[in-house]
Amino acid sequence: MKIAAHAHENHRVEFKRELTPELDLEKEVVAFLNSHEGGFIYIGIDKNGQRVGVVDVDGDMLKVKDRIKNNINPSAMGLFDVLDETGPTGVHCIKIIVASGSEKPYAKKKYGLSEKGCFMRVGSATEPMPTAMIERLFANRTRNSIGKIKAHRQALSFEQLRIYYEEKRKPLGRQFKANLELTTDDGALNYAAYLLADENNTSIKVAKYRGLNRVHLIENNEYGHCSLIKATKAVLDKLEIENKTASTITAKERIDRRLWNAVALREAVINAIVHNDYSREAPPKFEIFADRIEITSACALPEGLTPAEFFEGYSIPRNKELMRVFRDLELVEHLGSGLPRITEFYGPECFRFTENFLRITFAASGPVYEEEVTEQVEAPVTQEPESRLESRLESRLESRLELKLAAKVILLLNDSALGKLALAQGLGHQVVSGELNKQIRRLLGSGLIEYTLPDKPNSRLQQYCLTAQGKALLK
After folding, report:
1. Which helix (H) or strand (E) holds 31?
2. Which domains are delineated in the chain?
3. What percent of the chain has pLDDT over 70?
């Protein structure tokens, strides 16, 4: 939401001229947390909607984050974003995005669950919450939150999570479990910690079917039993491989088009994983058909939120602990940013809600499998791309090279650079085999592929891409 000059406050927007110790910022945040729409607080805009600006943007943003983090209960971590919003005239303001919380009622920690601590939005004003409402909300407070469920295994390690944080230059300290809210109130590791641990029993399925239904399964991959971050990256890598590019050559130009919009697909994957209801022990699943991809998560609409409000951008993060970590690792940008990216390309009609699940369906821009094309047209049988490529490889590589595997690797690298794990998954395997390592070395030696980080051949960020010679081979 962009605020224009002379805008007005309403039930979702609050203006504050400046951040001072006297400003009761926590009261405004609590009120939006307790609403079912959430809202926006702007610092640096006066009551008339005029931008007056903020002098020390970075300093004030840190103060805002610190106050919200330490002065509100239950914790609001994962439920707010603090951004620097620069207007058209270059005036800096602070924008605080607050989502509706799932553990209502929220309160100022100093006063607790009382009319001095709990607040609500009434029109464009913030008012004390009546005692009867506080008691009703508390009685109905969400109790199946993954932050409150104790992990059935307490001997958990987090080396994968440490690596991902170090890659973003955000090393985890000794108190990271408490700071990331991976413990219950009594100090035990919670279910969020279990999902982010190096080993768990959660697995995400990516399946491929021949045709338009689930009758003929041709590929079934599972990514998991590891940190949810690692599993998410593996799913994204796999779908990146599946999201092939089709080319149409006209008299004037060549038009390249992928099966699915890459931005919308990524957002849908992340949303399905972050907002899934893991308390049911039902992970999200991803299914590819001849004409579409379906993404299903155990994620019904939050109580009190209508589909219309959902598409208007009202956000109630189901798993704020996961949201916090995914944002720290830059897998998501800020609250409410994913839905507009999806509907921009596929419209609201791609969403289907049931009582217990949410399904997103993206139609493919063309046939997902080559055999879908050949089935429609009677034509002489021709060699498959892998076979044709194998024939060409025979004249270029040593005879000891196992041509079929080499051809598959080259085809996988046709559209983008990939690491060893992504290549293995593209071949339908969970781990990198010794045979794949051997073929990669031979393809490097033959000059058909090359490192993306030639100065660091053993880097864990290393990927491989086709050389000009390799691309010429494909042509």
Report:
1. helix 25-34
2. 13-139 (3.30.950.30), 204-363 (3.30.565.60), 383-474 (1.10.10.10)
3. 86
